[in-house]
Amino acid sequence: MLLSLRIFTKSNDMGSPEMINYSGIIFSCYADNNTSCVHAIKDHSLIYTYAGKLLVEDRGKELTILPGECVFIRRNHRVRLTKLYADKQPYKGITFLFRRNFLREFYNNMGKKEKSNDIKAPEENVFRIPLRPDMSSLFHSLLPYFDSSVQPTNDIIKLKEQEAVYSLLNTDNQFSPVLFDFTEPWKIDIIDFLNENYMYDLTLEEIASYTGRSLATFKRDFAKVSELPPRKWLIKKRLEVAYDKIMNQDMKVRDVYAEVGFKNLSHFYKAFKKQYGFSPKTNTTPRL
């Protein structure tokens, strides 16, 4: 397992978020308030809030993770994560990514008595983790690396990953069938997924991955359910939702265009008029 250090920055007036990835243990600091994005969680993830506040939105439900608390998110699942200031502190968090090859090795090294095949996996995808001494100790042992130039060794990283798994198993044995499920994910219905996520700025590669497909398979499957190509389908869907909000719900254009997924107001005006034959500036259709 190679040790890697990656720092990503985004320039703005209020500072720049930073992410340091030590081969699957991620230290992240977001200087901007209200930094929000949709994540497709490809690996089981354990997220600890060190400072600030983390909001986790999953299918209409929201969890608030305060400093000293953590949350587990199942692999192959999509959530919205929003990082916020709290007590004048920017969001800082530590994330474990449990990759499948690591979990398979861990499982193979477990003794027979530790393995249990009769525990039913829970249906939830997001779990608030109760505060326990072993979990708190794990994350506190990693805090010195937040502001230090010293990188943990591969052996330390592997040891901490193992400690994190044991802490989850000690928290609740229901994590066993979740962590050690090595089956491939089922394909997700494409149209259902897009109807729920049309407003997000996702690439075709991301949509394919989130629905359990390669890009080639996604394009082939999409052609079976729509006469439009994916991008045109998304624009049509966004315009239909915008039309309803403006014409039937009396919402203002400036409050609608970004909400349905358009980045540029002028592009929204142009696309709206092309589809409906009139400008969205008024809330009445033109007279015939």
Short description:
The protein is 35% helix and 21% strand. With 288 residues, it is of the alpha+beta class.
Kindly describe this structure:
By secondary structure, this protein is α+β, with helices and mostly antiparallel strands. The chain folds into two domains: 162 residues, Jelly Rolls, CATH 2.60.120.810; 87 residues, Homeodomain-like (Arc Repressor Mutant, subunit A, Orthogonal Bundle), CATH 1.10.10.60. 35% of the residues lie in helices and 21% in strands. It has ten helices and ten strands. The strands form two sheets. Strands 1-2-9-4-7-10 form a six-stranded antiparallel sheet. Helix 6 packs across helix 7 and helix 8 crosses helix 10. It starts with 17 loop residues before the first strand and ends in a 12-residue tail after the last helix. The N terminus is likely disordered.
Helix and strand arrangement:
Layout: E1 18-22, E2 25-30, E3 35-41, E4 44-51, E5 53-58, E6 61-65, E7 70-73, E8 77-84, E9 91-98, H1 100-109, E10 126-129, H2 133-140, H3 154-171, H4 175-179, H5 190-197, H6 204-210, H7 215-225, H8 230-248, H9 253-256, H10 265-276
Antiparallel strand pairs: 1-2, 2-9, 3-8, 4-7, 4-9, 5-6, 5-8, 7-10
Helix pairs in contact: 6-7, 8-10
Shape: globular
Quick check: average pLDDT?
A: 85
Strand order of the largest sheet: 1-2-9-4-7-10
The span between the termini is 68 Å
Rg, nearest Å? 22 Å
Strand content: 15-25%
Report the biggest beta sheet as strand number plus sense, adding barrel if it closes.
6 strands, antiparallel
Task: List the quaternary state of the chains.
Answer: single chain
